[in-house]
Amino acid sequence: MFSLSPIKLMVIVGVVMLLMGPDKLPEVAHKLGATWRAIKNLQEKVEAEVREAIPDLPSTGDIARIARSPVNLLNQLADRVDAKEAAANQAAASEGDTAGDEPAPLLTSPRPPPPPPKRTDDPSPPPDPSLN
């Protein structure tokens, strides 16, 4: 595969600087800076519009952290659920409600029975043992 190490990048930048010469180097640097600023401004505008449309969206830093470590996000969500369940159990215990002691069933409705196997009037003949 094609990989660029920092040394390779420095060699490429040095060769490009030599080929451009000292007269064009400030102009190219200015254009690169202006392009970088335009890209950053576009990114900020898009992010502002998305945040306006979806206000509950996590910040970009949070999204990057989630992408790097999805297990950490799952642990945080599990902790939130545990905290909510503990608070609900405490509230039920303080009210003297005994129905809160039993855990809620996982399925609210029973599963439907599996469909019966299809019947065929003409069963297929058994395999021929001589073909082994």
Keywords, please?
63% helix, mainly alpha, 132 residues, flat
Question: Can you walk me through this structure?
Answer:
- The chain is mainly α and 132 residues long.
- Among the domains are: 8-55; 58-94.
- It contains three helices and no strands.
- Helix 2 crosses helix 3 (70-95).
- The longest helix has 48 residues, at 6-53.
- The model has no long low-confidence stretch (mean pLDDT 80).
Kindly summarize this structure in a few lines.
With 132 residues, the chain is mainly alpha-helical. Among the domains are: 8-55; 58-94. It has three helices and no strands.
Topology:
Blueprint: H1 6-53, H2 60-68, H3 70-95
Helix pairs in contact: 2-3
Q: Count of DSSP helices?
A: 3
Show unreliable segments.
none
**Number of beta strands:** 0
Overall 3D form: flat
